[in-house]
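Let us begin with a simple case.
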Amino acid sequence: MDKDKFQIYERIVNIIGQLLALAKLYNHEHPVVKTRMSDVFKEIQELILNKESLVLSESTGVFCVNGQEIPTQDALAGHVAEGLYNLRMGSLELGTGLSLEEFSCFIELLNNAQHLEGEEQIKQYLKEKGFMHIIPRFATYKLVEEDEAIVKEEGSLKIDELPASIVDTFLDDLNKGNVGKQLSVRDKVYRVLAHNPEFLAKVVFDLTKDKDSHEELVKILWLIGDYLLDEISTAREEELNRKILNELKERLLSLYGQKQEKAHWKEEIQKIFTAINAALLLKGFIVLYKKHKRELENVADKISEILKTIPTESQLYRKTKEDLEKIGMPLLDPAIFKSESSS
């Protein structure tokens, strides 16, 4: 994939993300949304749709456009990936010949206005609409394109056949607490490993099988927990990493339960994951708080802009000011009331 192509895909994801946010804030019939919808559709047509289809896919936390992985650290890209993930779809394809009306429907799907989920529901919905150029597909792109020898047919990793260099690098980063920092620069295999419960369980078990105390177990599990918790910035990532941690716990309980001399460690594993899950819940609340705080700030900004257009001597202005003071709205621009207070 050349750099120019990647930049085109990144641009497409960003303008779709902007449109999703705008459409969620207003509605699809709002003039601002209609105008922006048309502009974005034209730009995507010029960039790609006149020549090839556009396939957005999401699998195990990896978001791709036409098979090219697109980082989701940016809020706009993350919004698009989260919309696709919430549909419980592998991918959605926009085919050549897509109409503006179909593109508008595509944006509605990503915002999940119809509360649809899964391939069959979405296919039925599109069929009823008569839309032929939005194609839901459950199958997704493989996460690993190079070194296919280490990938099973269904796309999961053969842990025992991994190159030693990858495992050694991962273990070194894990012991140094650097796994989270390295996820954005390592290759795809490494990044998949960092979210693979089977591999993580094997790592923990191998590193502690010759230990007599729980100290190493506690240290390693919290190192894993730390990077999985630290990368959470959306509700989608919280749900995904919660599943990873829960599966990791179950695999570890099974592994240690098979070792007579380590069977008593199962209680310690339960305690550690109880604490990690509490930290996960806390991170989820923080993410939720930040999201609603941003939304509240956006609402406050809009209130500020509208108030600037209302005469200060009007009853509506004074009543609005009283209401805002009652609810303790702290985010309004002080300049709004400046002329009134100085008069």
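The second case is a distinct protein. As before, the sequence precedes its structure tokens.
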Amino acid sequence: MTVLSEAMWTSGGEQSWADLYQPLTEMLYEVGFIGFGSIADRGVIYFYDDPALADNLSTLEKIKSFFVHPAYHMALGVKQNYELTDST
């Protein structure tokens, strides 16, 4: 983690977001912890959907949101808001 986040702590502000965060983002994506959203309206994309996606800096710059994979929600205490509808 120290090596992957080193650029974040040592940068003088001259690097882009993708340059700073790509190594850590790529690792979290590859282990399946996070997915990417809003890339050409493809929905949420996880590693098993597109393994090479986090390798490309230009693709990372297009990401609008990150999603924690549902498998980790319980351990992290993530609560979903579900709207209950009356089925009658």
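The first helix runs from residue 2 to 10. The mean pLDDT is 83.
Keep these points in mind for the review questions at the end of the chapter.
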